[in-house]
TrEMBL record, chain A:
The gene is eIF2Bepsilon. GO terms for biological process: translational initiation. CDD domains: eIF-2B_epsilon_N (cd04197), W2_eIF2B_epsilon (cd11558). InterPro entries: ARM-type_fold (IPR016024), eIF-2B_epsilon_N (IPR035543), eIF2B_epsilon (IPR051956), LbH_EIF2B3/5 (IPR056764), NTP_transferase_dom (IPR005835), Nucleotide-diphossugar_trans (IPR029044), W2_domain (IPR003307), W2_eIF2B_epsilon (IPR044123). This is Translation initiation factor eIF2B subunit epsilon. One of its GO terms (molecular function) is translation initiation factor activity. Residues 498-665 form the W2 domain. PANTHER family: TRANSLATION INITIATION FACTOR EIF-2B SUBUNIT EPSILON. Component of the translation initiation factor 2B (eIF2B) complex which is a heterodecamer of two sets of five different subunits: alpha, beta, gamma, delta and epsilon. Subunits alpha, beta and delta comprise a regulatory subcomplex and subunits epsilon and gamma comprise a catalytic subcomplex. Within the complex, the hexameric regulatory complex resides at the center, with the two heterodimeric catalytic subcomplexes bound on opposite sides. It is found in: Cytoplasm, Cytosol. Belongs to the eIF-2B gamma/epsilon subunits family. The keyword Acetylation does not apply.
TrEMBL record, chain B:
Residues 355-436 form the Mannose-1-phosphate guanyltransferase C-terminal domain. The keyword Protein biosynthesis applies. Component of the translation initiation factor 2B (eIF2B) complex which is a heterodecamer of two sets of five different subunits: alpha, beta, gamma, delta and epsilon. Subunits alpha, beta and delta comprise a regulatory subcomplex and subunits epsilon and gamma comprise a catalytic subcomplex. Within the complex, the hexameric regulatory complex resides at the center, with the two heterodimeric catalytic subcomplexes bound on opposite sides. It comes from Drosophila melanogaster. InterPro entries: eIF2B_gamma, GMPPB_C, NTP_transferase_dom, Nucleotide-diphossugar_trans. The keyword Cell membrane does not apply. This is Translation initiation factor eIF2B subunit gamma. Its main location: cytoplasm. Keywords: Cytoplasm, Initiation factor, Protein biosynthesis. Residues 6-136 form the Nucleotidyl transferase domain.
Length: 669, 455
């Protein structure tokens, strides 16, 4: 067959994803065409494919097919860097609502002839994927069930952008055995992995420090697997499904790690947008750096020290740019303004005395005097009037106008006053802060599950991830982990290894609690306790001690109703008194009983408060004798049990007195 | 004072090899020409140890002592006895001999047969000022040997061992049988520590290099009884704990309970202010975090033996048979040629022999075919016999015309003429009647012992 003579390298690019995460800017156009350091995200992905020797690319879009097609056409016309030796087709349709739909559609169209590279349009990578593709093909020859090879990249795990994963990989053949996406807002304290993963393989490597840039090499069978399993919506569904039904589907997934020198990241939300912008400006993604004509094949910027990329046609004094700034042609910055860690699009105007840090301005943005912009994105053609303070992850939609003297944080602003919810067609009125500025609250944007091509975690809270200080979470994490470690350590220290005595005590407590609740015959309880006693080989002394301890260890006394411990004790002894008196008969056993009380005194603060009444109560009910109490009191250590002695002093004095007077008149407490 | 002391544990009761043990101590089980305990001692001798503490049961001391005197060992052996009646775990034993430990020390089990070099292990320990370093073997030494006797569901115990690939530090060691359906891994074991390799087919060689303070700490933890099962996981866990703040008097408590400050592992580590300053100024940092070793003061390492190294723990009947059968073929690698396999006192008249080991005074008659087998002291093999893949223990007698394949013939057992035995275990003193044809059975006198499957 002719197509096997020269197998061309094909790739599939999924555009129009992350719609929800990029609101409100995603309402006005495809997310694939969102500028990232003044270059469209789609162009980064296309260039990555071109560098990896891909000859034919299918860009799969759903909502904004025409604008993407237009962009591709314009790119070819202007000799964009990726247009050489690579043909680009734009396919897709309105009906496609998720990643899985796209894969099924591709399978039906039978466009893919061999192993292919699968990429999101939001991936920025300078990796050469050819070796990974070769490795995948070799693997596929060896293992006919090879469905895909997922590509991961090691990362520092300090900032979470929703792309971090924990995977378990067989060290011998790089086969994936476990895949867990780490949640963005939640720090797991522990991970639970199925034991079979480890027992079935001699050595399994756990990678926790991995980033999933959504790069994969697919086998032709990958597409048909999507067709066979219509419930696969996302790539994660696919991975999960294959891992669970490994044998049923007879398919396996392999893993490739990118070398340390290669960069890969997925721009799926605003924090990732900020992170990748910073990396590009800091030249980590070389050769994808602003001063190389990425898209237009002409140099647009002059590269100055401190990572300042300034277009020769931008009107800005050098003093204004501190570090890590990209400023495109036609922009104008007035005197007194300071910019750092920011990207300024074409033809922007920034007034006097503004401060911009971590601000991302698209083309034609106007910022009036005395504004402060921090950690924010400003859409194309937006206007920010005087004396505004915009910070902490604000996003201003295209052409919105922010009135003067507004302070905004963590807010999304759009130009259009109303928005239709995608599902129930209810018009939601948005809160207005100006004639062309309406606040988009996270809730009115609709459920993330409803939006197009979404691959979020279901557990993710209903809030669009916002930009923020990239370094801030670092401290928080280390604090967190220290805390949890300490915490855990403490709990470990408290739980002693269960020895026989403790098990025995536990069993007696169980017996008594049940007997108390069910009002069972005390004789049976004695029988039960005795059998436990022989099972754990307890001496009589230990049994006496533990039975009393167990009575006081019952839930009803440890946590009595209304904190009234005396009532609880009274109730308990009414029911369980015969059990206790079965053991506490002799003077010696009374001593054991009081010793146990001494223990309880230290553990239970309620008992501590009422100790003299409790001892008195036991005396009243003839569990302990006067002489036992006196003997016990006498042997209490002066220093160690100072408080206990103090609490008991009165009672003992009274006992002494009453014995002298031979007075057995009883007073109820 | 020497840098390292060595302790060999030889007080085990050999509960997992009841069939072959008879009444002898486990450490005197015959492995080729020598008792089992000779092998770890020889290993220590090869590593230039001159003095070894041997922990034995009181009642077995003399027997072990006299057995070892007959072996070519130059080590000075210091026998530490533990009471025979007490139920001593390994950690208990260590606590018991506390006074003898004066420096950092090695703990070796008496059932280790290996030729592995301990230097990588010791050097790792030295290099990182570790609290513990343990040796790990790949399992599978006995995988090609069929267990004789009745077919049983022999399930080897397996450990799950987590080692950080970059640093070889131990993250956890836990028995697979202790886990339920899932393995729980704490986040701090993964965070910033790179790849964590989890091994399920490594065998703990029971060779540990330990800091002196570890035994001080162990002494405190009196409720810990076994080393491998309780103390080792405990210590490994404690690696990541932070030093608790100095004890503050608990003001809420009226009693003023004295908190036991020395209870925490980190109070035992000799970590001085000077050490801290050295760490701060040092350029060394292997970890991915800010401070070397992530600021961990207790460090445990797991070192894997090279693939070609021989390593087996003779702690069940299967491995006991396996080491004996294979010993002849690995002998030169194991011990060098210094030690002859056929004892000078053995009488070998047989001409058809292949890879056999004969102990002192073993009589192997002519007209026999003897392959891959071991013959204990004073055993007698009559003419016209075929013995393959088997182990004939001391004083056993095999009469004429027998065919014995993959069997263990116990001490003083007797196989009468014409018997054909395959995959059998013959207990001590048992007499196999004339012309018996048996396969895969365990024959022994009475029910001398109960077989309790602990697993």
């Amino acid at each position: 067959m002719a197509q096997f003579e020269k197998e061309i390298v094909q790739a599939v690019l999924i555009a129009d994803n992350n719609v929800w995460n990029f609101k409100p800017l995603s309402d006005e156009g495809s997310t694939a065409l969102l500028p990232l350091v003044n270059v469209r995200m789609l162009d980064y992905a296309l260039m990555a494919l071109n560098r990896s020797g891909v000859e034919e690319v299918f860009v799969y879009t759903s909502l904004y097919r025409s604008s993407i097609r237009e962009h591709i056409r314009a790119g070819i016309a202007t000799d964009a860097a990726w247009s050489f030796k690579m043909t680009v087709h734009v396919i897709g349709g309105e009906g496609c609502r998720c990643f899985g739909d796209a894969m099924r559609d591709l399978d039906n169209k039978a466009l893919i002839r061999g192993h292919f590279i699968l990429l999101g349009a939001d991936t920025v990578t300078n990796a050469d994927l050819r070796p990974v593709l070769e490795q995948h093909k070799r693997q596929a020859k060896f293992d006919k069930g090879t469905a895909a090879t997922l590509v991961f990249k090691e990362c520092a795990n300090n900032v979470r952008t929703g792309n971090e994963v924990l995977i378990a990989v067989d060290r011998r053949n790089d086969r994936l055995h476990y895949h867990q996406r780490l949640r963005m807002h939640h720090k797991e304290n522990r991970y639970q992995l199925p034991l079979d993963v480890f027992l079935g393989n001699s050595c399994v490597a756990l990678h926790h420090n991995l980033l999933d840039p959504q790069i994969a090499i697919g086998s032709p069978s990958m597409l048909s697997l999507f067709n066979d399993n219509f419930d696969f919506q996302t790539r994660d569904d696919f991975v999960r499904g294959l891992l669970i039904n490994e044998e049923l589907l007879d398919s396996r997934i392999y893993v490739a790690l990118l070398p340390a020198a290669q960069y890969a990241h997925k721009v799926n939300n605003w924090p990732a947008y900020q992170l990748v912008s910073r990396d590009i400006i800091n030249r980590w993604a070389y050769p994808f750096v602003p001063d190389i004509g990425l898209y237009k094949l002409q140099q647009e910027y002059v590269f100055h020290k401190d990572n300042i990329y300034k277009s020769p046609e931008a009107h800005v004094s050098k003093v204004a740019l501190l570090q890590n700034v990209v400023i495109e042609a036609g922009s104008h910055v007035d005197s007194g303004s300071v910019i750092s860690d920011s990207v300024i699009g074409a033809n922007c105007r920034i007034g006097k005395n503004c401060r911009l840090t971590n601000a991302f301005l698209m083309a034609d943005v106007t910022v009036m005097d005395n504004c402060r912009l921090e950690h924010c994105v400003v859409g194309e053609g937006a206007i920010i009037n005087e004396d505004c303070d915009v910070s902490a992850g604000c996003v201003l939609g295209a052409k919105s106008v922010l009135p003067a003297k507004k302070t905004l944080a963590k807010t999304l602003i759009t130009r259009t006053p109303s928005r239709r919810r995608s599902d129930d067609e209810v018009v939601v009125e948005l809160k207005s802060i100006g004639p062309h500025a309406y606040i988009v609250s996270d809730l009115t944007t609709g459920d993330p599950e409803d939006s197009e091509c979404e691959d979020l975690l279901p557990q993710q809270p209903l809030s669009i991830p916002k930009m923020g200080d990239l370094l801030a979470p670092l401290d928080e994490i280390s604090y967190c982990s220290d805390f949890s470690e300490d915490d855990e350590d403490a709990s470990r220290a408290v739980t002693p290894l269960p020895d026989d005595t403790n098990i025995f005590l536990g069993e007696v407590i169980d017996s008594l609690t049940r007997g108390f609740r069910e009002k069972s015959n005390p004789d049976f309880l004695v029988l039960e306790i005795n059998s436990s006693r022989y099972a754990y080989n307890m001496s009589l002394k230990e049994v006496n001690f533990n039975v009393v301890k167990a009575v006081f260890g019952m839930q009803s006394i440890v946590e009595p109703a209304n904190d009234n411990v005396l009532v609880a004790i009274n109730a308990a002894f009414k029911q369980l008194g015969p059990v206790v008196s079965n053991y506490i008969k002799s003077e010696d056993s009374m001593m054991d009983c009081l010793k146990a009380l001494e223990d309880v005194y230290e553990e239970n603060h309620l008992v501590r408060g009422k100790i003299s009444q409790i001892v008195h109560y036991l005396y009243d009910k003839d569990f302990v004798s006067e002489s036992a109490i006196q003997a016990w009191y006498a042997q209490l250590d002066e220093e160690e049990h100072a408080h206990l002695r103090q609490s008991l002093a009165k009672l003992v004095a009274w006992l002494d007195q009453s014995s002298e007077e031979d007075d057995d008149e009883e007073d109820d407490d | 004072m020497t840098e390292f002391q060595a302790v060999v544990f030889a007080a085990g009761r050999g509960t997992r090899l009841p069939e072959v043990l008879g009444d002898a101590p486990k450490c005197l089980l015959p492995v080729g020409p020598y008792p089992l305990i000779w092998y770890p001692l020889n290993l220590l001798q090869q590593h230039n140890f001159t003095e070894v503490i041997v922990v034995v049961l009181e009642q077995e001391k003399l027997e072990i002592q006299s057995a070892l005197e007959n072996t070519p060992l130059k080590l000075r052996l210091d026998y530490a006895t533990i009471p025979s009646d007490g139920d001593f775990g390994t950690a208990d034993s260590l606590r018991y001999i506390y006074d003898k430990i004066k420096s950092d020390f090695l703990v070796v089990s008496c059932d280790l047969v290996s030729n592995v070099s301990l230097y990588p292990l010791i050097n790792k320990f030295r290099e990182h000022d570790a609290a513990l370093a343990m040796l790990l073997f790949p399992s599978g030494f006995e995988s090609d040997v069929v267990m004789p006797g009745p077919k049983s569901k022999h399930k080897p115990e397996r450990d799950l061992i987590g080692i950080h690939a970059a640093t070889q530090r131990l993250a956890f060691v836990s028995a697979a049988s202790d886990c339920e359906e899932t393995l729980n891994i704490q986040r701090h074991l993964l965070k910033n520590r790179g790849r964590l390799d989890v091994y399920s087919r490594l065998v703990d060689a029971h060779v540990y290099v330990l800091k002196k303070w570890v035994i001080d700490y162990l002494r405190r933890k009196e409720n810990i009884s076994t080393f491998k099962g309780e103390f080792l996981p405990h210590l490994i866990k404690k690696q990541h704990s932070k030093r608790p703040p100095k004890t503050v008097q608990d003001t809420t408590s009226e009693v003023g309970v004295v908190t036991k400050n020395e209870d925490h592992v980190l109070h035992y580590v000799g970590h001085t202010i000077l050490d801290q300053k050295i760490t701060q100024t040092s350029l060394f940092n292997q970890s991915l975090s800010q401070s070397p070793y992530h600021g961990d003061i207790v460090r445990c390492y797991g070192i894997q033996a090279p693939r070609d190294a021989i390593g087996v723990r003779v702690n069940n009947t299967l491995s006991f048979l396996a080491i004996n059968r294979k010993l002849a073929s690995i002998w030169n690698n194991l011990c060098g040629e210094k030690h002859p396999l056929i004892s000078p006192g053995a009488v070998v008249k047989s001409t058809q022999t292949k890879e056999i080991i004969a102990a002192d005074n073993a009589k192997l008659s002519e007209k026999t075919s003897l392959n891959f087998s071991v013959f204990g002291p004073n055993c007698i093999i009559s003419p016209k016999n075929i013995v393959a893949n088997s182990l004939i223990m001391s004083n056993a007698i095999v009469e004429e015309g027998c065919n014995i394949d993959n069997c263990i013939i116990g001490h003083r057992a007797q196989v009468k003429s014409g018997s054909v035995l395959k995959n059998c275990i013959i207990g001590p003193n048992y007499v196999v009647e004339e012309g018996t044809h048996s396969q895969a059975v365990h024959l022994s006198n009475a029910d001398q012992f109960m077989e309790i499957d602990i697993q």
